[in-house]
Amino acid sequence: MSAGDVLAVVAATVVTMLVAVLGATLVALTHTLRDLRATADALHDEAIPLLEAARDAVVEAAVEIDRVERLVTSAERVSGAVDGASRLAARTLRSPVVKAMAFGTGVSRAAQKLREGETPVPPSRRRRRRPQRKAS
């Protein structure tokens, strides 16, 4: 055997080993790709119903948000109306109530003095004078 023949045998052996390694790699890659395809199909089968459920939930949430917004708007209107009505009632009742309380207090004091035997003296309606300033 010559050096060329030995070199050809060694080259053929190396090429055969490279082809065997490449073949094993291709078989492993094919197996991995099949697993990946099965996983993608399972993900697709499970994700579509989940996405549809999420879309339905978002639509329902939007409807509920609109409903709550209408309720809040109505509550604000009612609050404004009640606030206005309470201010009007306070303005309307304030003066008569104060006058009635003052009248009741005066009557009770007069009745008390009559019971004690005193003659009630009407309150003086004098204005208080302001202290005069001294001219310098």
Q: How would you characterize this protein structure?
A:
With 136 residues, this protein is mainly alpha-helical. 84% of the residues lie in helices and 0% in strands. It has one helix and no strands. The longest helix has 114 residues, at 3-116.
What class do helices, strands and sheet pairing give? mainly alpha
* Termini gap: 146 Å
Give a count of the beta strands, DSSP E runs of length 2 or more. Answer: 0
The arrangement of helices and strands along the chain is H
Number of helices: 1
Summarize the structure.
This protein has one helix at 3-116.
How is the topology of this model organized?
Blueprint: H1 3-116
Keywords:
mainly alpha, 1 helix
